[in-house]
Amino acid sequence: xxxxxxxxxxxxxxxxxxxxxxxxxxxxxxxxxxxxxxxxxxxxxxxxxxxxxxxxxxxxxxxxxxxxxxxxxxxxxxxxxxxxxxxxxxxxxxxxxxxxxxxxxxxxxxxxxxxxxxxxxxxxxxxxxxxxxxxxxxxxxxxxxxxxxxxxxxxxxxxxxxxxxxxxxxxxxxxxxxxxxx
Length: 182
Hints:
0% of the residues lie in helices and 53% in strands. By secondary structure, the chain is an all-beta fold. The model has no long low-confidence stretch (mean pLDDT 95).
């Protein structure tokens, strides 16, 4: 056994068209559910991603993904981690609770919807949106947060860490922020 080798619970790479339902990924040696390498038309329903070494859900360099009715809890890093030009993705009816770092991390991505999520009691910010370098065009644009509860996180409820020039056109609508320490 080589202890430095990491394994994701489910690792999707360059897949076009995938339906996943009712899975419980926990205690993976890396991420719970990871999508990358230009995957598209991925659907995940009624699933949980808990106590994984890194993130519950990590999505990179892909598009047209929909994740509904899900739980990301007690992961050592983020509940959801998004980076490297992810686009056209929807997260709906989910719980992100008690993750070691942020509930949601987003960088270098666009056209994402976060709807009816509960982002609760995470070790840092509820949602942290950033960029790779100022002026690099790697921020977050056209992200929509609708009817989310972002409560009791150990940092800001919502932190857009990029200037508007790097992360334009984002919207927060009908969300509740309470008890966040930042």
